Amino acid sequence: MKQNTQLTQVDPSLYNPDLRPIPPEERTWGTYNYASLWVAMSVCIPTYMLASGLIAGGMNWLQAILTILLGNLIVLIPMLLNAHAGTRYGIPFPVFVRASFGVRGANVPALLRALVACGWFGIQAWIGGQAIYAMLRVIWPGAATFPGSMWICFFLFWAINMMVIWYGIETIKLLQGIGAPFMLAVGLLLLFWITHKAGGFGPVLRTPSKFHSTSEFIRFFIPSLTGMVGFWATVALNIPDFTRYAKSQRAQIVGQALGLPTAMTLYSFIGVAVTSASAVIFGEAIWDPVVLLGRFNQPVVALIALVALLLATLNTNVAANVVSPSNDFSNLRPSLISFRTGGLITGVVGILMMPWKLLRDFSSYIFGWLVGCSALLGPIAGIMICDYYLVRHRQLDVEDLYRRGGIYEYQRGFNPKAIVALVAGIGVALIGLMVPALHWLYDYAWFVGFLISGGLYFLLMQRQTSASR
């Protein structure tokens, strides 16, 4: 069911063409587009590092794969729940979140989500720069001695990302559709090549877990699972940015349900198997694929693999980490900040977040970055889903989302009840960092924030439910 997207009057401070509701005739994304979107976003070095980090942390291959699969099945639920409004009303995330936080208050969750996306953008750009640098060393070994060559490669990849986003959402759609099958094929070739070097799958899959007791495993498993959910917690919020282009609810639901768990599990298995093979070959689990490829004296194979990883990183970075923050920054001042300008802001902030520190080791990446992000994003997801399904029963007044003084005005454009619920959810999750006895709250950060904020928001909104519909 597609709703009328024609607006009769809008407030210029809340509207620009990039934030408009997409009319039915412009909704061209089908099941394949969403499945290939998730394949392209999943087939990337951070996914590989996610899986390889679990191996480096002590899990065996089966424990790592099941942890990743469970995490992705969990995060698929809020993903599909938030996707519904995008398809039904044709609106992006920063407009959708106005219903719960207010037409001005929406900037609070939008900016939190945008800052996390900027961090992800910086991480992907740093990884892409490393891949270019590694390719350069294969083609021109003396490049490593050139002062600042690593930084030059980093900014080169950054510039390529900016060029892609400059041409807009349809370029991203084309890039995903063409690149996804190619990247999966090359990833599988890399898997079979390195396991052959290790003596086949037998020695690789026989690598035992390093945990000697169930309690020891659980202490590692719980924050790891939260990290798996945190990996896609950003897209679980801004998925309406993509589903607003869906031909139907069925197209986006089937496409996502097929694409996300399948692609993540398959490519994670590649990361798990390749990292396990590295332990067999080199005596240590090498979690960074760029470093691993540098260990092999096979220039042609390494070059092909690095090109594939570079393309994968570009696909993921633009789709997952630029589209949403561009819309979020645009939402701050729609009349001044366009989608393109928002993309440039994303790129600059991503550099300022110093991604080279976030990727210092697998512990900083999974337990620091991923779990920390989930503490900020879980509460937002809880509030959005509670508001849309339990408070409003999926009924939104699209016109009022784009004007002042309507039902989403609340108090001067802010819904204080949503802000209180957000702060409570984040605060409870982060208490675990300061109180050792309550560290489990941080280990479960996304889940704790989701339940605390969603539940508190529902209770606070009970008195005005009828007036808000």
Structure description:
The protein is an all-alpha fold and 469 residues long. The protein has a single domain (12-360), classed as Hydantoin permease (Orthogonal Bundle). 72% of the residues lie in helices and 0% in strands. It is built from 23 helices and no strands. It is globular, with a radius of gyration of 22 Å. 55% of the residues are buried.
CATH-scheme architecture: Orthogonal Bundle
How would you spell out the order of helices and strands? HHHHHHHHHHHHHHHHHHHHHHH
Radius of gyration: 22 Å
Count the domains.
1
- The helix content, as a percent range, equals over 70%
CATH class: Mainly Alpha
The CATH topology comes to: Hydantoin permease
**End-to-end gap:** 19 Å
Q: In what range is the share of β-strand residues?
A: under 5%
CATH superfamily: Hydantoin permease
Largest pleated sheet: none
**What class, by secondary structure content?**
mainly alpha
Task: Give start-end ranges of low-pLDDT stretches.
Answer: none
Count the E strands.
0
Summarize model confidence as the mean pLDDT.
83
* Number of discrete helical segments: 23
Shape: globular
Question: Characteristics of this structure?
Answer:
0% strand, mainly alpha, 72% helix, Hydantoin permease, 23 helices, 469 residues
List the helices and strands and how they pair.
Layout: H1 31-42, H2 45-57, H3 61-89, H4 93-96, H5 98-101, H6 107-139, H7 149-166, H8 169-197, H9 201-205, H10 214-231, H11 233-238, H12 240-243, H13 249-282, H14 289-293, H15 299-321, H16 323-332, H17 339-352, H18 355-358, H19 362-391, H20 416-434, H21 439-443, H22 445-461, H23 465-468
Helix pairs in contact: 1-8, 1-13, 1-15, 2-3, 2-13, 2-19, 3-10, 3-13, 3-19, 6-7, 6-15, 6-16, 6-17, 6-19, 7-17, 8-13, 8-15, 10-19, 16-17, 19-20, 19-22, 20-22
